[in-house]
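User: Could you write out the 3D structure of this protein bound to 5-O-phosphono-beta-D-ribofuranosylamine? I've included everything you need below.
Assistant: Certainly. Input first, then the structure.
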Amino acid sequence: KKVGVLVSGTGSNLQALIDNCADPTACMCADISLVISNKPQVLALQRAKDAGIPAVYLNPKDYATREEFDAAVSAQLEEHKIDVVCLAGYMRILSPEFVRKWKGRLINIHPSLLPRHPGLNAQKQCIDAGDRESGCTVHFVDEGVDTGAIILQERVPVHRHDTVETLTQRIHQSEHRAFPRALRLLTTGRVRLSSQGTIMWYS
Ligand code: GRF
């Protein structure tokens, strides 16, 4: 399966996906074939180039509306014959049209145990709430914010003296395991999104 990854920043999750897909023993059934960023000169674009993967920056200011920008993203994905799209730290709201077009083939990683702490600053929300446990969630994307059907979660403890930074680091490590695992479940046909928006498992 050809995988496109949308990014906005550091791209450590992108790197985890690249590394797993390059490892034949990981059996990912996935090639990272295109990386698109809505931010210029981010480390994620450099990571893609270093791995020999086409890396495209699209400037939202070049488009009159969100729909037009997302249509340009879709056009790039289609041009590269992308089957599955991963959001890896993509800090931009998607238009409903884009979500509908890629439904069932579009997954996101979020740094909390959803449905707890959706939206921005999930790690701070977690610490402020006094949670003893956090983690990450990989889910299909629907029209809501961090609401789609959950493929898998990985849990990490929250320590008494954790700061947002120390917790973020621990969650990141779990993300780098969870995202490739979830992508593999999708590209190997083990999981699918039903037309009702629920998870379907296949053995
Ligand atoms: C991750 O924590 C991810 O859950 C969130 O944005 C962060 C991206 O980090 N959506 P990176 O760019 O992959 O390092």
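Residues 9-14, 88-89, 109-111, 172, 175 surround 5-O-phosphono-beta-D-ribofuranosylamine (CB under 6 Å).
User: Perfect, thank you.
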